[in-house]
Amino acid sequence: MLQQLTINNFAIVDQLEIELESGMTVLTGETGAGKSIMLDALGLTLGDRADRDVIRGGAERADITACFTLPDNPDVTHWLKQNDFDTDDNSCILRRVVSKDGRSRAYINGQPTTLVNLRDLGEMLVDIHSQHEHQSLLKTSTHQRLLDDYCGLQQEASEVRTLATKWRQLNAELEQIKNRAEESNAQYQLLSYQVKELEELNLGESELESLDDEHKILSHSESSMQVIQEVLDLSSDNEELNLEQSLNKAVALLQNIPYASKHTEEAGSMLKTALIQVEEATSTLKHAIDQFEIDPQRLEEIDLKLGLIHQLARKHHVSASELSALFLRLSDELSGLSEADVQIELIQEELEKLLSLYRATAGKLSNARDKGASKLSKEINNQLVGLGMESASFSVALTLFSDSTPKISGLEGIEFLVTTNPGQPPRPLVKIASGGELSRISLAIQVVTAQTSSIPSLVFDEVDVGIGGGVAKSVGELLRQLGNKGQVLCVTHQPQVASQGHHHLYVSKSSDKESTATQLKNLNKQERIDEIARMLGGEKISDKSRAHAKELLA
Hints:
Elements: E1 2-10, E2 13-19, E3 23-29, H1 35-45, E4 61-69, H2 74-82, E5 91-99, E6 104-108, E7 111-113, H3 115-125, E8 126-130, H4 140-151, H5 154-183, H6 185-201, H7 207-219, H8 221-237, H9 243-255, H10 262-291, H11 296-315, H12 323-386, E9 393-400, E10 412-419, E11 427-428, H13 435-449, E12 457-461, H14 469-485, E13 487-491, H15 495-498, E14 503-511, E15 516-522, H16 525-537, H17 543-553
Parallel strand pairs: 3-13, 3-14, 8-12, 12-13
Antiparallel strand pairs: 1-2, 1-4, 4-5, 5-6, 6-7, 9-10, 10-11, 14-15
């Protein structure tokens, strides 16, 4: 509920503070006194566009603040919390400052914000109805909300909205994965080929070192065996002369020497040692020659594999010893890309489940909406008769979407249609040319949906233009009905409407040579009689007009 509106340096208003209560509050006064200016100021706090022309002459800036109480408005409370604007005292303060340089600043609960946020929040706090300004009833999203609220389908609509949102988010995730998969398809093909090459190479751990050793042995077997055999011949195998025979003979000669000196004994000892080493060397060489094998076929196999190993190493710009680690790394990368297909399949399955649940839930919502639409249309048409629009016909159109993609609003679009003259086809509210007709139709809709609407404050700016007598009285009674359920602020020139208010504010202006200022007064009982008498009979108030005013107030 709008509790207070503070206006500084706006249009002809110098400084004005308006205290408001629940119920129906009427604003009356002379033409040009500033009644609608106050509503324009309120509109700025709700996100309307502004320029520096709204600043009072001689002032540096216009500053408007609207204070709201939120005793029972869960939608607003949730929005404030979700956007980090919530407070501890269950209140909401909207502020708008317009400077002479044309810039404007917006605040929610003291925190700077955007006009988009201000508008989004403002639409949940106040609904302004006038002949000239845009109003929420022209939006099809409002039509859906009003119908769902009227039918008590808030929970069902919320479930549909949640399911559609989940489906859309998951579908967007799927598209991202698919796009990434397409982009990485070439990489996948390359990795598959590279991994296959390395897999076919089948290079085992330490195999490269073993192949190198075996290759060296096989490639030098013949020449190595020839050299070893020559050494064996010199050492022991040559029957005519070899080292072992020569050393044995030398040792024997020294043992039989006629006189053995110290030197000959040392020499004999060294020759014996040499003989032993030659014998050991010969034995070792015989073992060595057995290890060599002439196998051209095996050598060719090793040559081919080593050639392939070094070829792949050059291809991947790594050393041959790093190929095994490269194979493991590329295999991991390929596995990661392969998981995208599994992920896509899982998401598609989840999307199908969500879509099935959405269609079932949205189908039930559609059936309930269809039944409620007929009842809502009937009640609004009854109200239109009382507002002097007997020829008008209101209806709620539910149009199925051709696109089967889940929508947060459900399976159909909802729009309020009206025909104001017999024989004319129903048209959307936004197509109605007459501001007076639109205001009365809006009033009828609000009266019917007021008990279920979540918007706490309704503002009607001269919705009674062009009517009078019994119709004006009906308008006043309907506005009072709305006021009994919440808060209604009504700017009016009709005494029949003004007399229905729970509270009465009088707007006046005073002028001197330098400036014009607007004042606001909360009328007491006698002042209210005089004001309604003025509205009935002009500036000169007679006893007759006062009596009529008392009758209207009674």
